[in-house]
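Now read these lines:
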Amino acid sequence: ICHENVLRIEKYAFSNCPRLKGLIMRGIIEHVEEHAFISCKSLEYVECDNLESIGERAFSSCKSLTSIHLPSARIVEKGAFVGCDAINKAKFGTKLESVGHDAFRRCPSLEQITIPLKNDLFPSNSTFQGCHNLSRVALVEQGVLNETVNALLRDEWKNDMHTVIDSIKRNLPNALPGN
């Protein structure tokens, strides 16, 4: 558990820590720099309430990492979670602006990701390469999106938009990662 006054986790700060099991960052941590937690083989979960950006390969090869909850992350840089074999759930908030190339590449257990509905969030098709079990994309902006839809004046537009939103939320059993 990080102290509230920690603003950043520097390069290689916890790389290859074999016994680090969990990471809870409260307070105002702005940035986890590149390679900060690379190859932490026992790291199972990451929770960061106020984290703004995750550096290149910051959590790559964390073989036991099963879930991440990063509600305030804005930027996930290139390869941030590449090779996290056990990760099955990733949850981001409405502030997410970009997810870099290969961010979740070779995460074969990834089944679900929660993201905002935004254009150009993923700059490349390689973001989820090798994520063969990715079958559900949940939209985090339900409240905001639904408020916008409900503000529409015509009832048939509202109904059409709710139908589209519901179809986006469904499981994507036949979708190929990266397509």
